[in-house]
Amino acid sequence: MASHKRIIQGTVVKKAGDKTATILVERRIMHPRYHKTVKRFKKYLIHDENNTTNVGDVVTAIECRPISKTKSFRLKEIVSRGVGS
User: Fold this and answer.
1) Per 3-state DSSP, what percentage of the chain is helix, strand, and coil (rounded to 5)?
2) pLDDT computed for residue 16 by the predictor
3) Rounded-to-integer distance, Cα 77 and Cα 48, Å
4) Is 61 exposed, middle or buried (0-12, 13-18, 19+ CB in 10 A)?
5) pLDDT, tens digit (0-9, with 9 covering 90-100), for 19-38
6) Is 34 left (phi over 0), alpha (psi -120 to 50) or beta?
7) Are residues 74 and 4 in contact, defined by beta-carbon separation less than 8 angstroms?
8) Could you state, in chain order, the average pLDDT of each consecutive group of 10 residues for the chain (85 residues)?
9) Confidence at residue 47, expressed as pLDDT on a 0 to 100 scale
């Protein structure tokens, strides 16, 4: 049995302590009444074992066991580096 883990992609908005980064994930949904595409945002804390991310990087993260109260994703790869990196 293969377990399907969620993969999210977002932009690093904050370096939150040691081995932790906050990413902002944007998703586009259709508004139920007005039938217009609207953006919805959510922030996730991800585990960055080697402190390789910087603010502005676009990263992908994969779901894992809970590492802390709020961290359940770990860094999978850095898709692109930010402007200041």
Assistant:
1) 0, 55, 45
2) 86
3) 10
4) buried
5) 999 999 999 999 999 999 99
6) alpha
7) no
8) 84 93 96 96 96 94 95 95 72
9) 96
| Rounded Cα–Cα distance for residues 25 and 48 (Å) | 16
Report long-range pairs for 20-24 (Cβ below 8 Å, ≥24 apart). 20/45, 20/46, 20/47, 20/48, 20/71, 21/45, 21/46, 21/48, 21/53, 21/59, 21/75, 22/46, 23/59, 23/61
Contact status, residue 11 vs residue 23, Cβ threshold 8 Å = yes
- Give the global pTM: 0.86
Quote the CA–CA distance of 85 and 73 in Å, as a whole number.
Answer: 23
The β-bridge relationship of strands 7-15 and 58-63 is antiparallel
HSE (CB half, 13 Å, CA atoms) of 23?
A: 31
